[in-house]
Amino acid sequence: QVQVVESGGGLVKPGGSLRLSCAASGFRYTDYYMNWIRQAPGQGLQWVSYISGSGITKYYADSVKGRFTISRDNAKSSMSLQMDSLRVEDTAVYYCARGVVVGELDHWGQGILVTVSS
Amino acid sequence: QSVLTQPPSASGTPGQRVTISCSGSSSNIGSNTVNWYQQVPGTAPKFLMYSNNKRPSGVPDRFSGSKSGTSATLAITGLQSEDEAVYYCAVWDDSLHGPMFGGGTRLTVL
Questions:
Q1: I want to staple B100 with a disulfide (CB 3.0 to 4.6 A). Which of B25, B44, B49, B93 is the partner?
Q2: At B31, phi and psi to the nearest 5?
Q3: Contact check, Cβ <8 Å, B91/A103
Q4: Is residue B73 a contact partner of residue B17, using CB atoms and an 8 Å limit?
């Protein structure tokens, strides 16, 4: 069955860096685009980043552009989010989600907590 | 504040029909299909509805969706206690190159 599992979260100081990973299984990985979506404590969902199946096309929300970098390793069916210059407002649960047709996120991971605090 | 407007809360008793609205504009809902996600507290969001009114495999037919102009509606009939969750509408944003989510509606089953 389709599974996506996040790892790599934790506590980091403002200005620090963290790398999230998402391991996928149960489907032909290159056929799907992948996304990171986050949810600040008590808040709604915010899309963070997109990467195409080939890994060539990448997009970012304005709030993370220039600080976050998305990548994928199709040989390992995995995706990463390198987060630099972290801010307190980046504190959230980060979800990895598989994308089907444009805009449809049909499988989500369980989420991983990132806390940015001094 | 999201550009997709949802009521912050809704409620109903078991067996009732409830609806949740999602209001946008011609540049989002008016020109793209709407998807819905269900998030039970403490869990990850679940893909609930796509292309305005299509249910992914496994979603009960008690759930239905519709879209008219710049608004969309999620309807739940035969409300059950397990339907208590936060519901998010979402539309692909062509300028964002990503999905834009509504603020979410917390559904309480009384």
A1: B93
A2: -125, 5
A3: yes
A4: no
